[in-house]
Design brief:
alpha+beta; Serine Threonine Protein Phosphatase 5, Tetratricopeptide repeat; Immunoglobulin-like; five-stranded mixed beta sheet
Length: about 375
């Protein structure tokens, strides 16, 4: 190699010229122009050879370009594969996160409850029920959830489900005012007055019973006070004009076994009676059952009162016997005890002559007999 500055030969590996000290700049030791001219002449002499060489170069270039394109395509495919893999991984992670969140929500009572309220406010009752059902599974005895579900079924006009949930509330909270109010409205709408009556009877607090004031029917009243009577009596029952009265005499339920009241009840037999009566209005709603105990215990009539008094008489006399109303007096004159086969007193008796004993027996309408009374009359006419 020669130094570009002084033309001196530069040893292989030297950076600076050993003659002039300049930085070595390699200058070829051949004539470029001559070489170019030589190549041109050779090309003119060997056209076929050059053409063949150019063809090979072109083919080699195409192969090189093809390989480069294939390499780039592989790189793109690799990058795409990596990108897709990353996206799939992100999607899987996202799905897992969503599932974990959903599972967390599914196990959260508060989440299910609040979602139910939100959808109720939006009037999306189907979705609201779905969330409240999940909340119920988490807390089966939550009264508020059961009431909200009952109300949703009311809005959906599913009365059977509404009733079922309200009754379930009362098994958990027997004095739940809201459940009573909703059931009263439901049964009234359905005209299920028997159910309304049963609901009233199971209420055990004055506050709950007050909810039925609009349905209250006045109980029947008795004309005679309960108690013991020594004679037959008649009992009259009264109630509001639009009511029908049913009653029993033996203490049975008048709702189940009662006879319709149409006329006063005669208590004629000597025994005890337990009268139960109930009034039923035009809607079919019953009053409370009124009850009264009566005992009929007949008393034997008093002994007969006879005038004049026993004694000796010299003038003719008429003898009168005072007989209680509804009773009959029987008498004899020979001192024997009278029976119901003896003579019946029907008016004043003439006093017979001589010494005679008037015996009198009084028997009332119930067949009870008074003690026998005896009057000794001596009639000695002058």
């Amino acid at each position: 190699m020669k130094c570009a500055n002084c033309g001196a030969e530069i040893k292989l590996g030297c950076v600076y010229c050993s003659v002039c000290g300049k930085e070595a700049q390699i200058v070829p030791d051949y004539n470029v122009e001559e070489d170019i001219l030589k190549e041109l002449l050779e090309e003119d002499d060997k056209p076929n050879k050059n053409a063949s060489s150019n063809g090979k170069k072109k083919k080699s270039l195409k192969n090189s370009q093809k390989k480069k394109k294939e390499a780039e395509q592989k790189k793109k495919q690799k990058r795409l594969l990596i990108t897709v893999s990353v996206l799939i991984a992100i999607a899987i992670i996202g799905v897992i996160i969503v599932l974990l969140v959903q599972n967390s929500h599914k196990k959260s009572f508060d989440y299910q409850y609040q979602k139910g309220i939100s959808y109720t406010e939006e009037k999306n009752y189907t979705k609201a029920l779905t969330y409240f059902e999940q909340a119920e599974k988490l807390q089966p005895d939550n009264v508020d959830v059961l009431l909200r579900m009952a109300d949703l079924y009311r809005l959906r006009k599913d009365e059977t489900s509404e009733e079922a949930y309200l009754l379930q509330v009362l098994t958990l909270d027997k004095n739940n005012e809201t459940a009573y109010q909703m059931l009263i409205a439901l049964y009234d709408k359905q005209k299920e007055y028997d159910k309304l009556q049963d609901l009233y009877e199971q209420a055990d607090s004055d506050k709950i019973k007050a909810l039925f004031d609009d349905y209250e029917v006045k109980a029947p009243e008795f004309s005679e006070e309960a108690g013991e009577y020594n004679d037959a009596i008649e009992i009259e029952l009264t109630a509001d004009s639009d009511c029908t009265i049913y009653y029993t005499l033996n203490g049975d339920s008048p709702i189940e076994k009662g006879m319709e009241y149409t006329e006063p009840i005669s208590l004629e037999d000597e025994k005890e009676y337990t009268i139960k009566a109930v009034a039923k209005d035009a809607r079919g709603f019953y009053s409370e059952i009124a009850e009264a105990d009566y005992e009929i215990a007949f008393e034997a009539p008093d002994s007969a009162s006879v005038t004049p008094a026993a004694g000796t008489y010299y003038d003719a006399q008429s003898i009168s016997i005072q007989v209680p109303a509804g009773a009959t007096a029987y008498y004899t004159w020979d001192g024997s005890t009278p029976t119901q086969s003896s003579d019946v007193y029907s008016g004043p008796l003439e006093m017979p002559q001589g010494n005679n004993v008037l015996s009198v027996l009084v028997v009332d309408a119930h067949g009870l007999a008074s003690p026998v009374v005896r009057y000794n009359y001596i009639y000695l006419p002058e």
